[in-house]
Amino acid sequence: MAIIEEEEEERLLDHLPKTYTKGGLKTMPFIIVNETLEKVASYGLQPNMVIYLMKVYNLEIVTATSLLSMWSALSHGLALLGAFVSDSFLGRFTVVAIGSISSLFGMTILWLTTMVPQLRPSRCDHFEINECDRPTPAQLLVLLFSFGTIALGAGFVRPCSIAFGADQLDNKENPNNKRIMESYFNWYYATIGMSTLVATTLIVYIQDAFGWRIGFGIPAILMFFSVSAFLLGSSMYIKVSASESLFTGFFQVLVASVRKRNIDLHSVNCEDYYHQSSDSEIQALTSSFRCLNKACMIEDPERDINPDGFASNPWRLCSVEQVVSLKSLLRVVPMWSSNIMVQLSLNQFSFATLQTKTMDRHIFSDIEIPAGSFSVFMVITLVMWIAFYDRVLVPIKARYTRQPGGLSPVLRMGIGLVLSAAAMVLSAITEGIRRGIAIDQKDPQDGPNINMSAMWFVPQYVLLGLADAFNAIGLVEFLYSELPKSMSSFVVAIFTLGMSVSGFFGSVLVNVVDIFTSYGGGVSWLSSNINNGHLDYYYWLLAFLNVVNFLYFLLIICRYNRHEKEVKEKQCEYSTQRA
Predict the structure, then answer these.
(1) For 348, phi and psi rounded to 5 degrees?
(2) Which pLDDT belongs to residue 570?
(3) Which of 166, 405, 446, 522 is most buried when burial is the number of CB atoms within 10 A of its CB?
């Protein structure tokens, strides 16, 4: 089998030009090892981090959860910065290298906090956190600096690594290029799934069994190997130079529109007034966001257009393609925003870790699942459902309906929203039962496990996995279908931005809930002693917000369908005029 695979690889590489000495399949081990180890290292730190912040840094649950939500928001938000810097200034290789080194530096500092006593508060044996020493500003600064550098690394590596790998294989002269690229993307995402499973099981188990020093040391060591592997392949990489970014084009449209804000569009009735880029297909402008049409309006042909057909000043005259791209982005924003609540529901791991930590987590008498590893059920559900949907349901549907493809992206997004709300309802009910049993047994949270199996939490993780499979993948397909082909690489950045917004909103939400529910000296719903608080009420609040979000989604669909009808009518009218 190995000999056959080697012969196949040689046959594919034979189609490359003889001068094509860099890139190719030989670079894949370095790139995939870099991304895989980065995922294992960073994802392995997250599940138990709330326990580390509460037990070692003596932080309240609200403070710890808010901090972790902001960390998640920063990690995903910086992906936009990474993509922009890569496309416009430094190129993908340099950005991935900087990001990998930054992650290694941050994980090393975080590791040092487990070994250097001066970098953390003194050990506290009191059950009530408010009786313990708080971290000093200097200690918090070191902790936040480590989080920030890890977030910067993730933001630079994740959006650029997959595109950098594609650069090594994308060779239009190779007749097998399409199959090679499809194989690359499949294996790339397969390694991400495996990395997540390893991180949420093996790394979390090591932290529980061997302590924080070893548990945080292993991710730092893995990140060292990740950096080393990537840099070792440096001489073999194809390093594509930076070019103009889509972000720049968007800013140019906005600036040009503002500069021409006094132009009367009603006096323009001919598409010849608009600047069509010579290297793009002719496109029609719609009436939506009509003010942006001014950006591509030609005022003085001799002044605005160069002899080669390009704009003399791209900050004053843009192409129709640039305007259409920005309009397409603005049009999908409402649908994109409906995904934020789903991401917020998926990010409740900090509370779930504390809940399952008080319960019986044994599968068999000798096998106990770490509290931070229960999210693995969500990952397994996600992978299994995708395989079942793609290999079983889609072919069955095609056979009986005579139509290729599965459910529409919008329908899948709606199903995901319903499942997200159902998961939060189930979480609220389960927590209410858990809390009642804990109070009846007078469990002090840090004492013996209550007489309730943590397996009762598995159904809600299954629902969340299905919600993610339906909504997230449906959203990505929707974005790919609605945005121009020139913006295909922008889809991941848009989706990642939603995860960033959900992290920021989650941080604000827990703080608002804590302030309002503890007003007047009452016990907060989000008390650090979860048996005194009311996490079940918090989950009911999330369920309510998910229902509101679903109604918002239905309104978006109605408005979007009306807009689609207007666009098709405009395109038909435009095609008739051009003919």
Answers:
(1) -95, 25
(2) 52
(3) 166
Element (H, E) at 575: helix 535-578
- Cα separation, 487 vs 97, in Å, equals 25
Taking the C-alpha atoms of 45, 48, 50 and 56 in order, what is their torsion angle to the nearest 10 degrees? -90
Buried b (16+ CB within 10 A) or exposed e, 98-116: bbbbbbbbbbbbbbbbbee
Helix axes 535-578, 491-517, angle to 10 degrees: 150
Cα–Cα distance measured from residue 289 to residue 294, given in angstroms and rounded to the nearest whole number: 10
Residue 165 in tokens:
């790998």
Mean pLDDT within 169-179: 65
Tokens of 243: 């070019």
* Distance separating alpha carbons of residues 436 and 235, to the nearest angstrom: 62
CA distances for 356 relative to 299, 373, 421, angstroms: 66, 10, 21
> 180: pLDDT confidence band, cut at 50, 70 and 90?
low
Rounded Cα distance, 316 and 257, in Å: 8
Contact 25, 13 (CB under 8 A): yes
Cβ proximity of 393 and 406 under 8 Å = yes
Judge residue 296's burial from the number of C-beta atoms within 10 Å of its C-beta, 0-12 exposed, 13-18 middle, 19 or more buried: buried
What residues pair up with 339 in beta bridges, in sequence order?
A: none
3-state secondary structure 90-139: HCHHHHHHHHHHHHHHHHHHHHHHHHCHHHCCCCCCCCCHHHCCCCCHHH
Measure the N-to-C terminal CA separation of the chain; round to a whole number of Å. 57
Q: How many residues does the chain have?
A: 579
Single pTM value for the model: 0.80
User: What's the confidence (pLDDT) of residue 72?
Assistant: 87
Model pLDDT, residue 150: 93
Q: How far is CA 24 from CA 3, 20, 178, in A?
A: 19, 9, 14
Tell me the β-bridge partners of 305.
311
Per-residue b/e over 351-377, b at no fewer than 16 CB within 10 Å? bbbbbbbbbebeeeeeeebbbbbbbbb
**Mean predicted confidence (pLDDT) in 343-361:** 85
How far apart, in whole angstroms, are the C-alpha atoms of residue 240 and residue 225? 24
Average pLDDT over residues 370-398: 82
Supply 145's token pair.
Answer: 């600096």
Q: According to the model, what pLDDT value does residue 112 have?
A: 94
pLDDT digits (tens, 9 = 90+) for 65-117: 889 888 988 988 888 888 888 877 888 888 889 999 999 999 999 999 999 98
**372 to each of 40, 75, 235, how far by Cα in Å?**
14, 20, 40
256, amino acid identity: A
Q: Where are the beta strands (DSSP E) in 259-414?
A: 362-364, 367-368
Give pLDDT tens digits for 235-275: 888 887 776 667 778 888 888 888 887 777 665 555 557 77
For the chain, the 3-state helix, strand and coil shares in percent, each to the nearest 5, are 75, 0, 25
Mean pLDDT across the chain, nearest whole number?
A: 80
pLDDT average, residue stretch 294-319 = 77
